[in-house]
Design a protein that fits this description.
Number of helices: 4
Radius of gyration: 22 Å
Protein name: LiaF transmembrane domain-containing protein
Strand content: under 5%
Low-confidence stretches: none
Pfam family, one: LiaF-TM
Keywords: Membrane, Transmembrane, Transmembrane helix
Distance between the termini: 65 Å
Structural class: mainly alpha
Organism: Paenibacillus chondroitinus
Oligomer: single chain
Length: 101
């Protein structure tokens, strides 16, 4: 089964419709709040590739909204990175201490 453009759009529309229905029923996937900024970033990118200055504006606003929506996730990623970096520093310090003996 080959995927052409109309089938891809149909699947995307079905998925978005499903998410909207689930949101209205009360099953929140927290995806609906991310959908608009992701679409704005995508449309901004398309505008940028076609040489439109409005694309930069749409891309920038979408990126700022997306960063604020994902700030909790980004904080967790940053915290995990700090722990990993600290672990690597400790391991490197222990490895160099073994060679000094």
């Amino acid at each position: 089964m080959s995927m052409n453009r109309s089938k891809s759009w149909a699947l995307i529309l079905i998925a978005v419709g499903f998410l909207i229905c689930m949101h209205q029923v009360g099953m929140h996937f927290h995806v609906m709040g991310l959908l608009v900024p992701v679409v704005m970033v995508g449309l901004g990118y398309v505008g940028i590739t076609h040489g439109k200055k409005m694309g930069w504006l749409i891309f920038g606003i979408g990126a700022l909204i997306l960063i604020t929506k994902l700030s909790g996730f980004l904080a967790i990623v940053f915290a995990v990175w700090l722990m990993y970096y600290g672990y690597r520093l400790l391991k490197k310090q222990n490895d160099s201490a073994e060679f000094r003996l």
